[in-house]
Each structure stands twice: as C-alpha cells, then as structure tokens.
Write a structure and sequence with these properties.
With 195 residues, this protein is α/β, with parallel strands linked by helices. The protein has a single domain (2-194), classed as Rossmann fold (3-Layer(aba) Sandwich). The protein has helices at residues 17-33, 62-69, 92-106, 118-132, 142-147, 163-166, 189-194, and strands at residues 9-12, 39-42, 71-73, 83-87, 110-115, 154-158, 177-181. β1, α1 (17-33) and β2 form a beta-alpha-beta unit.
Length: 195
C-alpha cells in the first residue's frame, strides 16, 4: 500500500516463477538499458507450492502485457466462466482451490485472474479518469479491458490491506465486486466460494 504513494515505484505481488522472471527482466531493461528513473518492489512468498507453466504452455502476447500491466487470466475459459476470481501473490493458490471447490460442490465454472499489481491498475485507472473528464472518448482502464472478455460477478480474493483493491473497484465496469478476505494463517477457500 505504501508503494502506491511513491510515483516511480513499480510494485508487484507475483505468485508464480514465470511472473517473477518476466517482472525482473522488465525491471532490468527499464532501469539499466532504458535508464528510466524507476525502481521495482516485489512481494514474494516463501510458501512451497508447484510452479505451473505460463497459460497455454507458452508466454503468448497477452500474458506478458497482462503480467506487467497488473492483471491477466490464468485460465483458458474466462469467456465461459460464471464467476471471475481475482487473486494476488500468496492468496492466488486459494483462489485456484476455490475454483475447484465451486466446480465440485456447486457446478459453477470460475476463471482465476492473477493480479500482479494493484498499484499499476489503480494508476492506469486514475490516468484514464483524468483524460475522461475533459473528453468523452477516453480510453478504458486496463483492468476494465482485461475483464471485458468475461461475464458474471468478480470476487476479489486478497490477504493484504483492504484499500489495495479499492483503487480498482470503480474500474470494474458494472460488474459487482465482492470482497473475500484471507485470515492470517487460516485457509478460507470456502469463504471465497460463498462470497
């Protein structure tokens, strides 16, 4: 949350190794090659879990952009899913487990989205709003365009402070946003499914 107050800080909370690799590579390119006055802050976990390959087995064009801009779908079935689960960092595995529980217990298809940077999504949304005030044809925020391919409620699963996702709430179009919080050292995938 503090990172959002520093304009040249690019803050990320990746969940998977391929996300970390892409963010570190982009950070090195931006700071060392392009000589931009930015620094990267990354929150990672020490939880031991399986590291999947990038969606589709390869890093397609949409995945790297989504990782670096703050959100991308880790599922192939986002268009067909009835519910969209947003997860970030350590909580993403709970969103994945909630997806399986929703399918098994209630026969509800859910798509999981990795939110790598709430800060960048908020900054992008605020920039689009600044342009929208004087002009009617302002660009849509990245989070709005990313989730535009999906339908159904969006459930934001997070384990951090509440204000983190509040910055993207208004940018989720007309999609209802439910908040399911993760309690410290307790798994709450059932709460995510009931949200």
């Amino acid at each position: 949350m503090t990172a959002s107050t520093v304009p040249n800080c690019r803050a990320y909370a990746p969940a998977f190794a391929y996300e970390v690799a892409l963010i570190v590579d982009e950070g090195m390119q931006e700071m060392m090659v392009r000589q931009r006055d930015v620094f990267y802050y990354m929150t990672v976990t020490n939880e031991n879990y399986a590291q999947p390959s990038a969606p589709g087995g390869t890093m397609n064009d949409a995945t790297p952009e989504g990782i670096l801009r703050g959100i991308y779908c880790i599922d192939e079935n986002a268009r067909d899913a009835q519910v969209q689960l947003l997860g970030s960092g350590a909580i993403l595995n709970e969103a994945i487990a909630a997806r399986a529980m929703l399918k098994q217990d209630w026969n509800i298809d859910a798509a999981v989205w990795s939110v790598t940077s709430y800060t960048d999504l908020h900054r992008n949304g605020a920039a689009c709003e600044r342009v929208a005030r004087p002009e009617d044809d302002a660009p849509a925020p990245f989070v709005t365009r990313a989730l535009d391919v999906s339908h159904g409620p969006v459930i934001d699963c997070r384990d951090g402070l509440c204000p983190r996702a509040v910055g993207i709430d208004p940018r989720l179009c007309a999609v209802p946003l439910c908040r399911a919080r993760h309690r410290w050292f307790r798994t709450q995938r059932y709460a995510l499914g009931l949200a």
